[in-house]
Amino acid sequence: MVSGEIFTYVLTLIDSTVLLFLAVYFIITLSDLESDYLNAQSCCSKLNTWVIPEMLASLAATLLLLFNFHWFLFLYNIPLSGFLVYRYLNIPAGNFGMFDPTEIHNRGYLKGYMKETMAKMGFHLISFFIYLYCLISTLING
């Protein structure tokens, strides 16, 4: 059973690392748009490419924790996974994706996306250290 827990924590640690780097990529890309190094079309195209992989990676970690009966960590991951699925399912008709180049500068969407991405980065950073602690604790006590 301990090897299953180790496997779970290693996979969630890798997943958290990938999602952390993805959040940093989103912040860099949105910052480039904000400072006019990128135009809206190329920025939104780059970001929309990673929306579905981000959602699937978050769901994969959540489901892995559910199937291995790590209830606290599962409940910890549910809000972000649910939010990502909700955002994806509620993309307005006619938009090019979650990030739409015609609307990204309107009504403070860019600032909102930056705040959202910073919050996701903080979540993934905390998750990384939680999973690292769980892995080390399992290795020592296992």
Features:
single chain, 142 residues, mainly alpha, 79% helix
Please, could you describe this protein's structure?
The protein is mainly alpha-helical. Helices cover 79% and strands 0% of the residues. It has 5 helices and no strands.
Q: Mean pLDDT across all residues, rounded?
A: 94
Give start-end ranges of low-pLDDT stretches. Answer: none
Strand percentage = under 5%
The succession of helices and strands, N to C, reads HHHHH
* Major beta sheet summary: none
Helix content: over 70%
Helix/strand-derived category reads mainly alpha
* Separate helix tally: 5
| Anisotropy-based shape | elongated
Tell me the distance between the termini. 9 Å
Secondary structure tally: strands: 0
- Rounded Rg: 17 Å
Short description:
The chain has helices at 2-34, 40-49, 51-67, 71-89, 109-141.
Could you outline the blueprint of secondary structure elements for this entry?
Blueprint: H1 2-34, H2 40-49, H3 51-67, H4 71-89, H5 109-141
Helix pairs in contact: 1-2, 1-3, 1-5, 3-4
